[in-house]
């Protein structure tokens, strides 16, 4: 099986991102068309229907091309630096440019959501204005119906667009733009927390089936529209479940990775790492987990290499220099110190006094050994280290 061409491999993520909001827009449009056909069209006269359809066509021709162009520019303007970073040519990018690019990558879901939301919300006054171009009187509450239709479609579109763009951004762009930095440490990035994701999902699953039904009731539709209201509620629940699935990709997958990694570490695999970049609370949590595993592995290496024969600080210094199997020749001072005539004293002194004497001796001597001392030229000599206690004496 042949590898994909480098050019296609570099462009594929951006085509995926460029088309990401399309699925959400199609969902919102399908609901909007169904709503218009079943609830708004019966209230229109033939002339109003003609003006209404004309308003939709003109709005799509005028509003959406610049919005689409704006979105495509936001996405594909990242392709050139993306290629440079993949090919290890990031030396051509300054620190400020990298910060700006990372900030745009983090905020890309918000940009897509804003563009989709503006495209939908601006449609409501445009359609209401188009109906006023007809000489026929406008039916009561028809403007309210248009607003309901647009609001529900906008929420469906923006919620799903945000989740889809965020998932694709994390999958394709984070590993390239955040090779040597952390997404959650980038200044200027608008990061949606886990709580924010929950609130957004609640709005998606709650606004559509509940608030929309309340608005329909307020609009004056009684029992004769029960089937329609049930359909609206069912569609809203379906869209809410769709957004719940997307939310699970953002929340449940990292939890599963953390669970599997914790099990691997518990079984003794200290080479376990979680290679997942996140801008929300999972980001620092994953980094702290990886750091914890690294420290456990380092302590295990320290214990296996030196055991109890040298002090921990010296062992860390040796590991940092890593002298290899040949070792390293250094001039050091070694001291053995004990209490004179300790054995004879022990025969005539009670145990409690002997223990007190040893505690006093070791406390004072360890403090003296570890104390730093000034040298000529303003420098200080690092203190010594007690390596082993030997009865009434010690080795330092």
Question: What is the fold's blueprint, element by element?
Answer:
Elements: H1 6-40, H2 46-76, H3 79-86, H4 95-121, H5 123-132, H6 142-177, H7 194-218, H8 226-266, H9 282-306, H10 312-321, E1 336-337, H11 342-348, H12 351-370, E2 373-374, E3 380-381, E4 388-390, E5 393-395
Antiparallel strand pairs: 1-5, 2-3, 4-5
Helix pairs in contact: 1-2, 1-6, 2-4, 2-5, 4-6, 5-6, 6-7, 6-8, 7-8
Q: State the shape.
A: elongated
Mean pLDDT: 80
Our count of domains comes out at 2
How much of the sequence is in beta strands? under 5%
The structure class reads mainly alpha
Question: What percent of the residues sit in helical stretches (DSSP H or I)?
Answer: 55-70%
Tell me the strand order in the biggest sheet. 1-5-4
Radius of gyration over C-alpha positions, nearest whole angstrom: 35 Å
Tell me the number of strands. 5
Q: Give the low-pLDDT segments.
A: none
How far apart lie the N and C ends? 64 Å
Walk me through what this model shows.
The protein is mostly helical. 69% of the residues lie in helices and 3% in strands. The chain has twelve helices and five strands. The protein has helices at residues 6-40, 46-76, 79-86, 95-121, 123-132, 142-177, 194-218, 226-266, 282-306, 312-321, 342-348, 351-370; strands spanning 336-337, 373-374, 380-381, 388-390, 393-395. It is elongated, with a radius of gyration of 35 Å.
């Amino acid at each position: 099986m042949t590898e994909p061409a480098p050019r296609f491999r570099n462009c594929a993520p951006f085509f995926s991102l460029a088309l990401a909001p399309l699925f959400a827009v199609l969902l919102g449009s399908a609901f909007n068309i169904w709503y218009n056909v079943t609830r708004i069209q019966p209230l229109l006269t033939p002339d109003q229907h003609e003006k209404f359809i004309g308003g939709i066509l003109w709005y799509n021709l005028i509003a959406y091309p610049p919005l689409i162009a704006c979105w495509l520019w936001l996405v594909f303007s990242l392709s050139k630096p993306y290629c440079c970073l993949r090919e290890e040519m990031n030396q051509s990018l300054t620190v400020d440019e990298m910060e700006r690019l990372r900030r745009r990558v983090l905020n890309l879901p918000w940009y897509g959501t804003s563009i989709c939301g503006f495209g939908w919300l601006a449609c409501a006054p445009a359609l209401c204005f188009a109906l006023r171009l007809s000489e026929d009187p406008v039916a009561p509450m028809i403007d309210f119906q248009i607003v309901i239709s647009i609001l529900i479609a906008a929420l469906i579109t923006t919620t799903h667009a945000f989740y889809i763009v965020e998932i694709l951004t994390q999958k394709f762009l984070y590993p390239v733009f955040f090779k040597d930095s952390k997404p959650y440490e980038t200044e200027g990035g608008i990061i949606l927390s886990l709580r924010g994701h929950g609130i957004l999902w609640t709005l998606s699953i709650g606004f559509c089936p509940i608030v929309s039904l309340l608005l329909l009731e307020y609009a004056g539709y009684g029992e004769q529209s029960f089937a329609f209201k049930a359909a609206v509620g069912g569609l809203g629940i379906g869209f809410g479940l769709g957004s719940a699935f997307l939310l699970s990709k953002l929340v449940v997958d990292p939890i599963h990775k953390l669970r599997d990694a914790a099990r691997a570490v518990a079984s003794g695999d200290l080479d376990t790492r979680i290679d997942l970049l996140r801008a929300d609370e999972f980001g620092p949590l994953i980094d702290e987990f990886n750091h914890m595993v690294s420290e456990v592995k380092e302590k295990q290496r320290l214990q296996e290499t030196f055991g109890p024969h040298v002090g921990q600080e010296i062992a860390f210094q040796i590991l940092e220099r890593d002298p290899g199997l040949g070792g390293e020749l250094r001039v050091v001072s070694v001291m053995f110190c004990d209490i004179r005539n300790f054995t004879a004293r022990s025969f005539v002194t009670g145990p409690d006094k002997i223990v007190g004497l040893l505690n006093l001796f070791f406390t004072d001597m360890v403090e003296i050994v570890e104390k730093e001392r000034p040298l000529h030229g303003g420098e200080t000599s690092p203190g010594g280290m007690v390596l082993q206690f030997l009865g009434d004496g010690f080795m330092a």
